[in-house]
Amino acid sequence: MHPRAGKKAQSEDLIDVDEVLSAYYDLHPDPAIPDQAVSFGTSGHRGSSLDTAFNEDHIAATTQAIVEYRAAQGIRGPLFIGRDTHALSHPAFDTALEVLAGNDVTVLVDAMDSYTPTPAVSHAILTHNRGRSPEDPARADGIVVTPSHNPPRDGGFKYNPPHGGPAGSEATTWIADRANALLASGLREVRRVDRAKAAGHAQRYDYLHTYVEDLPNVVDIAAIRRAGVRIGADPLGGAAVDYWAMIGEMHDLDLTVVNPAVDPQWSFMTLDRDGKIRMDCSSPWAMASLLEQKDVYDIATGNDADSDRHGIVTPDGGLMNPNHYLAVAIRYLFSHRPQWPASAKVGKTVVSSSLIDKVTASLGRELYEVPVGFKYFVPGLIDSSVGFGGEESAGASFLRHDGSVWTTDKDGIILALLASEILAVTGRTPSQLHGELVAEFGASAYDRIDAPAGREQKARLKALSAEEVTATELAGEAITQKMTVAPNGEAIGGLKVSTESAWFAARPSGTEDVYKIYAESFRGPEHLQAVQEEAKKVVDTALTS
């Protein structure tokens, strides 16, 4: 751990914004170099302009590729576009507008030329497409310019097709391949107009009011208001800043925006575990400032830069582990949403806590387990066959009160508000309710660590088969399952190994020379550590055999 983890950032920790912006325009990538090519991970293309990984050429090429993809899919409706507060988001947003206008695509931008959370873009797409058939050419899609919780030097760019959620691999592979071909050809086929013409071409959409007005249809706002829950909402300098202010005002809640500052350097942040500035609302080090105020509010919450993640802080429990809160949210929602379909499933990723499995079984519901990536929950949320979809990284969404779709991308705002609804309706904080789950099912220790791996090792891990894992025991217990394909039939891009009381999963990082080890044990922290150590041996043996 970094010696200043949890301490406020100092001048030497801050980016030079002018340097980052200059690099965006001045550096030109070579797509033949893998680290400089367009590459879509689970949440779009990400990188830093300083590394020639997120530059104007990338965004021009990717936007042109999206234009061509949507045309091939028969999508001729408007494209909703939003951006977060990262320094690179505004220039990337401008570049995208120039290319979209050059291709005569109808573009809908924020009515106040402000920031737009990811869930607000998803909500806008679904609102426009409601009642339209999958073949209707007037369908809308969207782009969100965000690297999520990544450090201030990074930029990100993701595409949401007409279903409103993250694009699937078929779309992202096509878009990335076409973008790299456009880069290789010197952007000759990119159609683009100047910034003034692009600004005039764009149309306005009131993301803020449309989203905030609709919130009572997904969260019991009236119950929160009646109970007088004192809420402290920290946007962590992200796109939710105006949304939380409007939520409090429009719905007459006792809500304080803890820190309304927006700063592309994020100079007000406390350093994460590794000493970097990272707007990770599930990290106690990044959330240190809000944790200092935990006794001021009944419920305090944080969001990352594009508001698709949530962090829940209670006076009695501090910052909740994301898995613990997901389990509490699932138990509560499926007990307090009588209009939801009786057959609606509980969605979780393969690296989420087994506590969710136990809660789901207690509810008599079916578990829908998928690889890492919110895109796998999209079809189920649309047709209401999945009531709740959640990821261990503090991202989730759920259905409206009437059982219809709310968003098909992660929504950190409604998950944050749900914590206040839970307190208002049950009289107990989510952390207290988690204590009840522990009494019922037992306590688990969960953590994620990294292990070094080069490009070839990561590719080998991603393609690993269960048969290549020869180990029969893990931390003193017999291995009961080896999984490289999730129960929903999709490859997990790694490995999951389970025993009676523990499991680990290993997946290659898309941005660093490491692989991630997720692990959980119901036998305590010491057993968890043993699982983690043996996990490295199991994976390394499989990769070298």
From TrEMBL:
Record keywords, A-Z: Isomerase, Magnesium, Metal-binding, Phosphoprotein
Residue span, Alpha-D-phosphohexomutase C-terminal domain: 485-535
Domain of life: Bacteria
Alpha-D-phosphohexomutase alpha/beta/alpha domain boundaries: 39-181, 210-317, 321-440
Listed GO MF terms: phosphoglucomutase activity
EC numbers, comma separated: 5.4.2.2
Cofactor: Mg(2+)
Entry-linked CDD domains: PGM_like3 (cd05801)
Enzyme class of the recorded protein, top EC level: isomerase
InterPro entries, per database record: A-D-PHexomutase_a/b/a-I, A-D-PHexomutase_a/b/a-I/II/III, A-D-PHexomutase_a/b/a-II, A-D-PHexomutase_a/b/a-III, A-D-PHexomutase_C, A-D-PHexomutase_C_sf, A-D-PHexomutase_CS, PGM_a-D-Glc-sp
Gene3D superfamilies given in the database record: Alpha-D-Glucose-1,6-Bisphosphate, subunit A, domain 3, Alpha-D-phosphohexomutase, C-terminal domain
Family assignment from sequence similarity: Belongs to the phosphohexose mutase family.
The protein, known as: Phosphoglucomutase (Alpha-D-glucose-1,6-bisphosphate-dependent)
Lineage start: Bacteria, Bacillati, Actinomycetota, Actinomycetes, Micrococcales
